[in-house]
Write a structure and sequence with these properties.
alpha/beta, globular
């Protein structure tokens, strides 16, 4: 699509939008929020995933690849009679006053009122409408069947179910007939969620605001897709991230990996359906953890530490190459100890692969220098060939998605990025992500920060992310030397370097990022509020949306400090935002 149609975005979880007496943001709230954003000069609204995650507040823990979450439904648009709303609205009024989203309470209240409304309806009046919807959105059969059985099995994992543990296509038809009213209920909920999100997206387009969605790379094992499309998922391993400077133990995400070789047999049809579904609502789409399309950090069960993982696919070391250089298989076996540079691959104990950061492993460093140099040369050769293979896979898989849609696909490509990734993304016209705080010149003595004005055009510039601290939080996390370097050389401050950022300095950082040469610049909503001392919280930690790898109840609960209806009332704040957005560089 023509990405020049939008240049400047604001990012927020849908859950964070406050409106009137609601305890959580809802699909229709996107419209008044988009009206406010358009009035300031934003032309894109980016939200986190809104697919159903059940009772998990993380928007990345989907129980379906496509079904929308009922928690974001506007009940007032569904209820046929105001009497259904009396108790519900009284409860929502209390939940609307909480500092952070009370996910469990909001979900319980909406689940109760939806069931009550549905029970009052005549199913005969619904059937034709819902069957037409299910024909158009045929994924709803799998989703509804899973939800029905999950309820009947009192929420137990599908692996413990007595019946339908290994479903067949015919089972969907049987369930539709034998539990028809339950099927109607789940289809009815999805019908209204689809209508509300679609209507909001179309209205935003009329306002000149593009809606940008987010597709998670993985799903929960306890999900409709893993239950029904079992052969597409690798249930013997779990995805995660290798150890790094931010997390010495690495990360264990707990989500199954994919069986990409099986997906390839039908041209990645499951992924293509997922992208087509998203294109109904979005004009741009963030691909979460795009590196997973190239390779994934797999942790073999029963291990649960990122330290115990390895990249998949890997390229087994060829023992003949090592033998030709005088390295015996017994030596390779010895180097596959826990503190060594090699790991034994699951396929056979006589195959070895490279561990993450193999050059830093004690057994490698303790080798005789000449032996170490031979191994380094052979290991680097293997690493180069492995990355070439990753590039081929990433190009094929992402290419299937790229050719499926006219949406602007954007890549979240943070972390240990293989050298093949930027080339593939560039060739496919998929912009990667540039976050100023992590963009530094590593080859210069003081590692100065890159100027966003020099970011590549095919990129998305974002001064803050939902998975990182806010701008204020980042500032307080850094040591004084880093703060001084950034303050004096990046924003050219001549005052004493502050320990805490005032609104003026946050505004200077946003201005610097808005001058980026990236095709798209997206500001995080908490950082927008931070330029005003009266709107931001005292503690920057309260601006944070999520801390990865932590099961804190604080995660995913951030809410706007004021309601949508009040957004245009702080005139000074609105004027300042409008002024800095006007600095956005014109499209080349």
């Amino acid at each position: 699509m023509d990405s020049s149609a939008f240049r400047t975005g604001v990012a927020t979880p849908l859950s964070a939008l406050r409106r009137g007496h609601h305890g959580i943001g809802e699909y229709p709230d996107l419209v008044p929020f988009g009206q406010w954003a358009a009035g300031l000069g934003f032309d894109l609204l980016q939200i986190l995933p809104v697919q159903d995650t059940g009772d998990d507040p993380s928007p990345y823990a989907g129980v379906s690849a496509v079904a929308l979450h009922p928690i974001y439904l506007c009940i007032e648009e569904i209820a046929p009679d105001p009497t259904f709303l009396e108790d519900y609205l009284a409860e929502q009024l209390k939940l609307a006053k909480t500092a952070r989203v009370d996910y469990d309470a909001v979900l319980a209240a909406k689940t109760r009122v939806l069931a009550s409304i549905f029970e009052s309806l005549d199913p005969r009046a619904l059937e034709a409408q819902l069957e037409a919807f299910a024909t158009e959105q045929n994924w709803v059969h799998v989703y509804a069947a899973y939800k029905i059985l999950l309820e009947e099995n009192e929420g137990r994992p599908w692996s413990e179910w007595v019946h339908y543990r290994r479903p067949r296509p015919q089972d969907l038809e049987d369930l539709l007939q034998s539990r028809h009213r339950k099927w109607l209920y789940h289809t009815w909920v999805q019908y209204h969620a689809h209508r509300q999100l679609l209507a909001s997206a179309q209205r935003l387009k009329e306002l000149g605001v593009a809606l940008k969605g987010d597709v998670p790379i993985l799903l929960q094992e306890e999900s409709a897709d893993v239950w029904f499309y079992r052969d597409l998922f690798d249930l013997e391993g779990r995805a995660g991230a290798p150890p790094d400077i931010y997390c010495e133990e690495g990360q264990y995400w707990g989500f199954p990996c994919y069986r990409w070789e099986r997906m390839r047999e039908d041209g990645y049809a499951w992924w293509r359906r997922r992208i087509r579904h998203a294109s109904q609502y979005y004009r741009a789409l963030r691909i979460d953890h795009v590196l997973g399309f190239f390779r994934i950090w797999r942790i073999d069960l029963p291990h649960t530490s990122g330290r115990d993982g390895h990249y998949v696919p890997t390229l087994p070391l060829d023992p003949r190459r090592f033998a030709a250089r005088g390295i015996r298989s017994e030596e390779l076996d010895a180097l596959a100890a826990p503190e060594g540079p090699l790991l034994r691959l699951p396929a056979t104990p006589t195959q070895w692969g490279l561990r993450f950061e193999w050059e830093q492993k004690p057994l490698f460093l303790d080798l005789d220098p000449s032996r170490r140099e031979i191994l380094r040369e052979l290991f680097l050769q293997n690493e180069s060939e492995r990355e070439r293979r990753w590039g081929e896979l990433g190009r094929e898989r992402l290419g299937a998605l790229r050719h499926e849609t006219e949406m602007l696909l954007c890549a979240e490509d943070l972390g240990a990025v293989p050298s093949c990734v930027p080339e593939v993304l560039d060739d496919l016209g998929i912009p990667g992500l540039r976050v100023e705080r992590w963009c530094r010149a590593e080859n210069e003595a003081d590692r100065p920060f890159w100027d966003p004005a020099h970011f590549p055009e095919l990129s998305v510039c974002a001064p803050g992310l939902h998975d990182a601290s806010s701008i204020r939080g980042w500032w307080e996390e850094e040591d004084h030397a880093t703060r001084t370097l950034y303050y004096t050389r990046a924003i050219h401050g001549h005052r004493e370097v502050p320990d805490r950022l005032d609104g003026e300095t946050v505004e200077m950082i946003l201005r610097r990022n808005l001058r980026t040469s990236s095709m798209l610049c997206v500001l995080l909503l908490p950082d927008c509020f931070a330029i005003d001392e009266t709107l931001r919280p005292l503690d920057p930690a309260d601006e944070r949306i999520n801390v990865p790898g932590t099961p804190s109840h604080e995660n995913w609960g951030w809410r706007m400090p004021i309601c949508i209806e009040e957004l245009d009332q702080p005139k000074s704040w609105n004027d300042r935002l409008r002024a800095i957005l006007a600095l956005r560089m014109p499209a080349p």
